[in-house]
Design goal:
homotetramer; 13 strands; 37% helix; globular
Chain lengths: 265, 265, 265, 265
């Protein structure tokens, strides 16, 4: 089994300079830790709790920045798409199209993403069971595209709360054969927990990341920011950039151990 | 308080003839019961569990049928929309645009629906709390459109299960001032419960409808079909058309009682 | 079907005078409404969240008061038991032994309660499904006692939250043949929600009571107090005594309607 | 931080010979792995789903066997108690009294257990949040006994399902200062999932054990049996004894790593 990949970046693309700064910093940190990096950021937060929440730079402004990050830093890039028509243009500028969790059952979006031949990362809906995911995989595969990742980001647990079920990780891997990613920062969200925005507690993101890596995953997804408390979205759960190197050290060591002793279901 | 409205029809538009047949039958039944009717059917089931599930007639074929039902039967019509670009054309042919539960936080869809000036029925996401809904209402209201309905259709409760929280009904009414609808047939679904399709048990739909009406609601949403076991979608939960008159009788009586004794929060 | 029974009283027996005062008041109210009454109060709150919570008068002091209420007012009395050895002495003084929800799977307690020949009210554990209850019924029935009631009091829904699933009511009735009771005040608790005590919101108790009666139940369980905000336990959820008559009026009317149109599963 | 302790043994004491056989086998395995062992088995399964489920040897027959295991093998022993009156006699024969999850709020049982001066392991109720546990700890501490362990064994998640929230482990440790144990086999139960008995899937127990150890725990609780499929209780979730050595190898390595890099909340 391959070492785990880190998919990381700020929740939303705040500016070209901000994206490049975080991408460069993450590249240096992951190279030092020997961890492959995929840079992630969103051009549009299309499902903010409140209308007044900032949504990001937008598709047109973001695509050139994605392209620049790929070229200047040589990093693969992931971003999320929200309507079928966005898939083709976005796939020109990034390596992995991400299907947001709320949209994980939207057939047309999955088909359009698959048709681009980009890799497709399907986030498991907060309302789905792990054994529901082969249906989403089959939708993408019907386009002839089998470069599919699945991401666990927590499941609804009462009101305004998510819980991460660690059984989901090997279960989805077994049932689909797809690489499975643990999204450690969204899974610690308290959706709607701040009234007009999602709350949560970033202190638990390393808890879930460690647990998942010890079970055995293809990757870990972490939103991170130079100054999370000032971020325009998901500030309660993003990790501070400066805390990433220590986390990568322990995750790398856990991953090596887990990969030597794979879980068998 | 006004008597409750019934929003009803088959899950998907299977054909022009089928839609007209069910609409006419429902019209006769509701007139006999003295219950106002809104006819509901979907032109596209855009989030079927499985790719192989039938999706309905499609937008182009369905719009003339919606128009015909309005004109020939004089019934208001409701249907759901899945992408922002569908809102304007669909609003020409129907009275109420419905936001599917999975899409209930998609800002652009809510804004586009609001901008049409049609009434907008927001289904509460399976991942949302009742007190999260004012944010969705505010998105639609920002377009200057205040003709908004909210529908409870159950909340995620473990895997492949929904539960209907009756507290949600007066709570959403109090917090938004919007008419609140109980969707009695989707709330008894077992999402993904049949493997490649949603299961559930229609026997419990009258249970939830009675409970909701006794609490006090503006309307009840029920999917119904001449032969549910042969229906291309949601067959496990749709009520047989022939069972509607008895249900309407008891719901009408409960409604009259509930409206004389409103719940105060 | 018979009209619904009200099981009601203060959460704990605070004093002889207090118990008699509430029992008399409830008797007058229910006679006016034509609703049969079972008086309920606890001699010991054996599972308070916090050690510092008051627990009630205790078994020895309470038994004569129970006997007095039965004799002087002619009311049947219900109270809960916590260890097998309490069942026999308590059954001398009351009509119905209640098994607390947390203890609903304790075999010895169910057997001891059954052996007394008193009626036994099993509260469904917050961790149980409706279809789990026939096992508890079978435990009591093994003693030759078939005077068994089942009570829905909400099921765990995330942390510190309960939800009342209305499907549970006819389902338990169908699967066991037992009278089914809706506990409307415990089901609106937020367990542990006040830190060292259970919180909740009494405003929703009438919501759940109305919903349950409209579905069709054998009884409604409501804790009530002359001054809930000063009560030593469950103050957040008990209804004020003065609000009972209006609630009984609407419940009686809903019940008559529901019993004329029984739900068929 | 100290290395993790294994609390293990068969669900119920089936016979003296069986208990000694498993205890000896576990002792050899844990010595080879360098893991401290506490032997666990139940003298009475007091809350079986069904009356017909076997309950174990019983208190009187079991106490001499507990004493023999302590003396002949030198192992500390843990068993669970169900009524306050059992605490004193059982504490003569074992080192740790365990409070079953369903009984985790029974004040008298917690006080009686504390009063023995034995260590007390409180299993977190399936209906409790991690932040509710300080109240149970305070009940035991009020007896002057501060030798308290807390065990996570999953929380109710819909019907007949549990989920293990990894956040609970460091949260309880932080809020109480108590050693926290992960019960990896009960947390993968499907309560009532076999109709008259609890189901579940033992394949996921190593998943939860690995995850918990990587987060950092004081111990892991695992029920194990020479032949789980023939066991009288919890057969679906107990691990086969022969699979323990490989699991201990990976848990030990993960534990060493986790203890070098403790989680900070």
């Amino acid at each position: 089994d391959l070492p785990f990949v880190l998919i990381a970046g700020p929740c939303q693309m705040e500016s070209r300079a901000h994206a490049l700064e975080v991408a460069s910093a993450l590249q240096a940190m992951t190279q030092a830790a020997g961890v492959p990096l995929v840079f992630k950021t969103s051009f549009d937060k299309a499902n903010r709790t409140s209308l007044s929440g900032k949504r990001g730079l937008g598709l047109e402004a973001a695509l050139p920045v994605f392209a620049e990050i790929r070229e200047s830093l040589g990093l693969p890039v992931l971003t999320d798409v929200h309507e079928a028509s966005q898939c083709a243009p976005v796939a020109e500028a990034v390596d992995i199209l991400q299907i947001p969790a709320f949209l994980s059952r939207q057939t047309d979006l999955l088909l359009a993403a698959g048709a681009t031949r980009a890799a497709v990362n399907i986030k498991k809906g907060q309302f789905l069971a792990p054994w529901d995911m082969p249906h989403g995989v089959a939708k993408v595969e019907s386009t002839g595209n089998d470069r599919i990742l699945l991401t666990e980001r927590g499941v609804s647990f009462g009101y305004n709360t998510l819980v991460a079920d660690m059984r989901s990780l090997p279960l989805m891997a077994r049932d689909t054969g797809c690489p499975v990613i643990m999204d450690a920062t969204h899974a610690v969200q308290a959706p709607g927990g701040l009234g007009g925005a999602s709350g949560g507690d970033r202190a638990f993101a390393p808890v879930l990341a460690r647990a998942a890596v010890a079970v055995g995953v293809a990757g870990v997804f972490i939103e991170t920011h130079p100054n999370p408390d000032q971020a325009p979205s998901d500030g309660a759960t993003m990790l501070a950039l400066k805390d990433m190197p220590d986390l990568l050290t322990v995750l790398s060591a856990l991953d090596a151990l887990a990969k030597r002793h794979p879980v068998h279901l």
